[in-house]
Structures are given as structure tokens and as C-alpha cells.
Amino acid sequence: MAVTKGQTPRTRSWRRFAVRDGVRPEPGGLFGVPILPSQRQSRVPDRGRECNDGAVVIPTLTTARLILRPIENGDVDGFTRIWSDPEFARHVGGPVTSPDAVWHQMAGCIGCWLLTGVGPWSVVERESGTLVGRAGLWDEPGWPGVEALWYIGRPWWGRGYAAEAAAAAITWVLRVRPELDRVCAAIVPANIRSVRVAQRLGMHRTGAEYLHEETHAIYAVSRADWSRRSGAGS
Predict the structure, then answer these.
(1) DSSP assignment, residue 128?
(2) pTM for the complete prediction?
């Protein structure tokens, strides 16, 4: 999966992001996480860059056990604890122990939303309200396509949170981007846990690409296959 690189200066652009929530769960769907339409959907666009007042709208998605909400400044400490874990970070660029570096990571994620209309969310456990990781989407010039990504902290491994969050993100992006024929994942081959998540999502390996100075295996699921799996509730 991609590791956000580079540093983003603190600018007033943060103030141009409008958060829209109010989503409610519905029964059925892949991993129990159908895309959950916002009650305010008639008043705001699905893609933030299309908001009439120039603000970027990042939706909030709710699954059976998780909330995918916009990244915020208060997440720095939680993300620093997660990214400081060497085992967690072994295949995603190595540990990041500085809160300042973590903040710049977060700013890059917000920048992805601004530049492409998709991006990562903070993942919060509904029952406890605990920040458990980051998941969502990624796109950048030269990338093999819109990517689903998932970074769940090690204390929450083994619960299926990665697949649950990624499934919500994939369903959402295929709904709001009708031109997409697939969603991919770029995974370092040694990252067996992430490979298993991709396979659980119905992705198949389609090749390999050299991205961010490292070879990644590319996995992908087509729109048609995702629709069939979602319809079957598998």
C-alpha cells in the first residue's frame, strides 16, 4: 500500500474543508458494510471538489463496527502511537515516531482529497470511539489506478477491520465515480497480511509496479465483480 510522502505546509486551505455526516447503517451488503447514504445528500455533492462554495466535502461513512470520518488535528497522538510500532510499520515505510512527521502525513491525506476528490479517512471503532487506524482511497499521477488502502493499528489486528473499512471505501468510490472500471491495491509482496485482505475483498493480482522506490504487487477488483459480490452479500 502507498505511504504518504513529502511535507505539506500549514496553510489556510484546511479551513476550506466541510465535513458532512449523518449517515445511517442499512442491512445487508458486502462485509455488512453497504455504502451508507447521508441524510444530507440532497444538499451536498458526493465529491468534495464539486461543492458550490469551493469547500471540499469529505463524507463520513458508517459500517457495522466502524466510522470512517475526515482526518482532524486531534488524530495526531493516536496516529503517532500507531505508526511508532515497528511491527505495524514494517511493510509501510518504517516507523514514524515524530508527531510533526505524522501531522505532515495527515496533511498529505487531506491534500489527496483536495487534488483528486478521493482520499483516506480516520477509522474509529464505533463501540469505543477509539481511533484504530486510517483507511480509504489514494490516487496520484502515475499511479496504477484509484487504490483502496488500509492501515489498522496492531492492537486491532485480527478483527476484520481492514476489510470492513476498505469495503466501505470501495463501494463509495464506485458509486460516485461511474467511470471507474476497477479499484486496485498496491502491496509490498512481503506484506502477507495485506495480501490476505486484498484477497478477501475479491482482488486478484494483475501485475507489479515500481512505486515510491519499491516494487509493489498490484491487486484489483473490477466493478462487475464487486457488484456481484456486494449483491450476494459475501
Answers:
(1) T
(2) 0.79
